Amino acid sequence: MTILKTGQLIKNVEGRKEKDQYVMRLISIDDLREVVALEKHVYDLLPNKQVLFMDSYEEMLDDMRNGAKIIGVYNKSKDLIAYRYLGFPGNSPNNLGNDINMPEGELSKVAHLETTIVLPEYRGNSLQSLTLQLAIPLVKDLGYGHLLCTVSPQNIYSLYNIMKNGLRVRALKKKYGTSPDGSDGIWRFILHRDLTPKAARRTSELLSVPIVDIEPQRQLIDKGFIGLWLSRESKMLNYVRFEDSLVY
Ligand SMILES: CC(C)(COP(=O)(O)OP(=O)(O)OC[C@H]1O[C@@H](n2cnc3c(N)ncnc32)[C@H](O)[C@@H]1OP(=O)(O)O)[C@@H](O)C(=O)NCCC(=O)NCCS
């Protein structure tokens, strides 16, 4: 069992703050039931179920057998309090690179940031960011070069953390639908970060849009704008257009 990181935590218990500790490590298939139980517990407590698309035990098991990784966060009492699930979609049609028109040759280098879950009493310790920062060298070592994920426009906490870590909004569309055209799906931003360092690029235009205003954002993205940063206070997403159009 390789320990990836350890540190201090603050646990919120009915308004009281208690000191705790965490250990982050990769989860084995044998621990998957605990992961799914935590996901269900957190989902049941969510006031807005739209923000989280649930993964089933069978889907995660299948995915882990095909190389998916889960970073688990355990407290001092060795209970699972959070996790980050990383998937490697390869040539699957579910590869989010397809949603941002990524060149075919790049699709095999895509790593997905799938679900992240933090128990309510442990929120505010930046565990979403910390596990993301741990995931980057991990996926790079495995030979992947792109991070992609989906985030609901109604999930300001997650969107803020993801964008803070350098992922940019590249598409806004309905996902996880079952109808042939996907129109029964739920709105999701598709975010991307190229893990290969690139030269700084000049931006030519800047526009701010409330994150919940779907249509204006879709129009901007169609015109080549990219969502670059989010103001958590005003809930405005700032879109820019780069002078060159190298990125995908
Ligand atoms: C999104 C999520 C993982 C973020 O957890 P986190 O890493 O602990 O969040 P942060 O440390 O960045 O929290 C920053 C602040 O926002 C607050 N916050 C975070 N998530 C919150 C939530 N869902 N509801 C209310 N407040 C929240 C924190 O309490 C903290 O407040 P503070 O600055 O006053 O201390 C967590 O909210 C969660 O598990 N949500 C449900 C599942 C989900 O939406 N996952 C993401 C999509 S897969």
Write the layout of secondary structure elements.
Layout: E1 3-13, E2 16-26, H1 32-45, H2 57-65, E3 69-75, E4 80-87, E5 110-118, H3 127-141, E6 146-151, H4 156-164, E7 168-175, E8 186-194, E9 203-210, H5 214-222, E10 226-231, E11 236-242
Parallel strand pairs: 5-6
Antiparallel strand pairs: 1-2, 2-3, 3-4, 4-5, 6-8, 7-8, 9-11, 10-11
The structure holds coenzyme A (COA).
Residues 42, 46, 51-52, 115-118, 123-128, 155, 157-158, 161 line the site of coenzyme A.
Describe, in plain words, how this protein is organized in 3D.
The chain is α+β, with helices and mostly antiparallel strands and 248 residues long. The chain has a single domain (3-242), classed as Gcn5-related N-acetyltransferase (GNAT) (Aminopeptidase, 3-Layer(aba) Sandwich). It is built from five helices and eleven strands; from the N terminus they run ββααβββαβαβββαββ. Strands 1-2-3-4-5-6-8-7 form an eight-stranded mixed β-sheet. The chain has a three-stranded antiparallel β-sheet with strand order 9-11-10. Strand 1 and strand 2 (16-26) form a beta hairpin. The longest helix is centred in the middle third of the chain and has 15 residues, at 127-141. It is globular, with a radius of gyration of 18 Å. It starts with a strand and ends in a 6-residue tail after the last strand. 32% of the residues are buried. It binds coenzyme A (COA). The site of coenzyme A has 18 residues, from strand 5, helix 3 and helix 4.
